[in-house]
Q: What sequence folds into this?
């Protein structure tokens, strides 16, 4: 019976009450002395008396039993199979308001106490059923009248539950359960990251006009996984869905219609059969990686002659099947982040070993690309993984935080550039990439870094490596451009090597990104630089078997710059450069000597 009432599709509730004249009325009271064992006949006898049947003759599918099961389920707002005091009072109160009555919480709680024969603080179906059958019997209602009355209360309760919001709407709860089990293609009762991401691609189009797509995105999975086990059970899924719906300004009937569309899409997808790659092994960097320029990064890596030489720098983090409906590199990254339990606010680079080279060399090390569907190599990558000779390893590296409050800023050019350079009237404060990034790197300047209006903050970064063989890319992120200007680039000719040193070809050029202090205020910024898109070329040239274990991207910052106005009478030396060496500002560019380390 409990199972049947939990699975009831039609939910409802209400309590009968005697009329003022003592005869029968549409609603019959539950306020009699309660379902005590001395007065309450066995439920089978009570129901039998209603229809004139002998004791025990009621069939399992009796209409009265079915109606009472639906009535119980209507009160059972969380579908736990038991009624808490809170659930009982909520429904009783709503039904009283609907009929224009004044509801007293204390008397409602007392009625529940009378029904709770085992004094457990909650009502199971048997207690609920016993009390209702007793009252119906005492009022002399016929079987047909009881069924009619309960069905009427079912309709009222359904309406009231809909008015209470999505969390209590019986139809929405039912459809959400359908969606959960359609998501759960493995049938294990939990949603894995790959099941979530696969469903997300199909569902996003259907909900984009009605809900925040964040309902089923990567961050939503992580937030819903309250026990942190990397899976979502039905309770976590339902709770996360209700939390989202409560922030949506949509009627419950509109939410229900949208969810029903989602069910149709998922059923159609399931009918076509789930399509995914074979298991893919995901490798991450085993140690805290350093940033190295191309010419230093590959020296200890495995080559075609010794492919396993440096594999100790990588560790296997898990396995995953990739749905074939993923369309972009970020779709794949979302699933990998979920599997690795990384924040959704994280950027990662994903490399794979492609088909063997035509010349018989090691497989092509390939960066996964594609910001939009149809671009990049994501589709080709997924198709490749299904081939018999595919290398099913993914290498995840270059993990860094995605900016949330800072936006990417383009460099100033032409007249805008000239106008900003004309405002450089003070000192230049420089941070060079080798001091900040190469190897272990050095600490950033203390926050806030204080400069004056007219001063310039300078980030010096490389343009290329190995005499122009490998190119660097640079991106600037800032929270505003009215305190510090947009970046203005100035090319710097590298110093020539001293004659005593062995010739090593021309040095690679540098570029200085200048940020002119325009007015008083505070600005936060950082510079990302790297050569990740050059790793394919490096691996091919050096015949590497896997991606280099060191990072190929890095970040200078973030730094917080506080701009103050120049005090009258202050002497300003225009263009004077000072450099941060990891410990203090100095006239000499380069890192401070590390204490406790001998020169080698």
A:
């Amino acid at each position: 019976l409990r199972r049947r009432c939990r699975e009831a599709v039609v939910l409802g509730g209400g309590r009968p009450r005697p009329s003022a004249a003592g005869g029968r009325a549409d609603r019959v009271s539950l306020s009699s002395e309660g379902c005590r064992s001395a007065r309450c006949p066995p439920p089978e006898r009570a129901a039998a008396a209603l229809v004139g049947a002998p004791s025990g003759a009621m069939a399992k599918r009796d209409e009265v039993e079915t109606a009472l099961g639906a009535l119980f389920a209507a009160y059972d707002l969380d579908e736990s199979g038991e009624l808490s005091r809170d659930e009982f009072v909520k429904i009783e109160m709503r039904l009283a308001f609907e009929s224009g009555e004044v509801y007293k919480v204390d008397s409602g709680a007392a009625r529940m106490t009378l029904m709770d024969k085992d004094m457990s603080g909650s009502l199971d179906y048997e207690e609920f059923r016993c009390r209702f059958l007793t009252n119906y019997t005492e009022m002399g209602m016929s079987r047909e009248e009881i069924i009619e009355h309960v069905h009427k209360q079912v309709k009222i309760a359904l309406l009231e539950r809909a008015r209470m919001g999505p969390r209590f709407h019986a139809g929405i709860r039912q459809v959400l359960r359908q969606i959960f089990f359609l998501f759960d293609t493995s049938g294990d009762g939990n949603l894995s990251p790959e099941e979530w991401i696969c469903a997300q691609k199909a569902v996003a189009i259907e909900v984009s006009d009605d809900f925040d797509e964040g309902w089923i995105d990567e961050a939503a999975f992580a937030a819903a996984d309250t026990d942190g086990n990397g899976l979502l059970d039905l309770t976590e899924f339902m709770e996360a869905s209700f939390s989202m719906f409560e922030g949506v300004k949509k009627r419950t009937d509109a939410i229900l219609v949208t969810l029903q569309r989602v069910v149709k899409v998922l059923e159609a997808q399931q009918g076509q059969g789930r399509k995914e790659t074979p298991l893919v092994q995901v490798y991450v960097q085993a140690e805290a990686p350093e940033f190295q320029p191309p010419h230093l990064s590959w020296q200890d890596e495995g080559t075609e002659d010794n492919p396993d030489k440096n594999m100790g720098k990588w560790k296997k983090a898990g396995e995953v099947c990739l749905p074939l409906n993923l369309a972009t590199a970020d779709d794949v990254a979302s699933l990998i982040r979920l599997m690795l339990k990384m924040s959704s606010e994280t950027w990662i680079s994903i490399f794979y070993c492609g088909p063997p080279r035509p010349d018989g060399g090691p497989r092509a090390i390939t960066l996964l690309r594609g910001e939009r569907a149809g671009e990049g190599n994501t589709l080709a990558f997924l198709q490749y993984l299904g081939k018999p000779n595919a290398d099913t390893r993914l290498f995840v590296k270059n993990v860094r935080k995605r900016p949330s409050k800072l936006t990417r800023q383009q460099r100033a050019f032409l007249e805008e550039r000239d106008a900003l350079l004309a405002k450089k009237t003070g000192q230049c404060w420089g941070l060079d990439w080798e001091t900040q990034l190469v190897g272990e790197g050095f600490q950033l300047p203390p926050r806030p870094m204080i400069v004056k209006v007219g001063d310039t903050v300078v980030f010096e970064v490389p343009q290329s490596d190995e005499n122009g063989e490998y190119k660097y890319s640079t991106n600037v992120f800032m929270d505003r451009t009215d305190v510090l200007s947009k970046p203005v680039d100035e090319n710097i000719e590298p110093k020539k090597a001293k004659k005593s040193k062995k010739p090593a070809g021309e040095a690679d050029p540098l570029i200085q990104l200048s940020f002119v202090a325009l007015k008083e205020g505070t600005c936060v910024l950082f510079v990302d630089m790297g050569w990740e898109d050059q790793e394919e070329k490096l691996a091919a040239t050096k015949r590497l078997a896997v991606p280099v274990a060191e990072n190929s991207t890095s970040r200078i910052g973030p730094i917080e710059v506080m701009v103050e106005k120049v005090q009258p009478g202050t002497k300003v030396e225009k263009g004077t450069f000072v450099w941060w060496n990891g410990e203090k500002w100095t006239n000499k560019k380069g890192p401070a000597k590390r204490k406790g380390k001998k020169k080698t």
Notes: Residues 143-163 form the longest helix (21 residues).
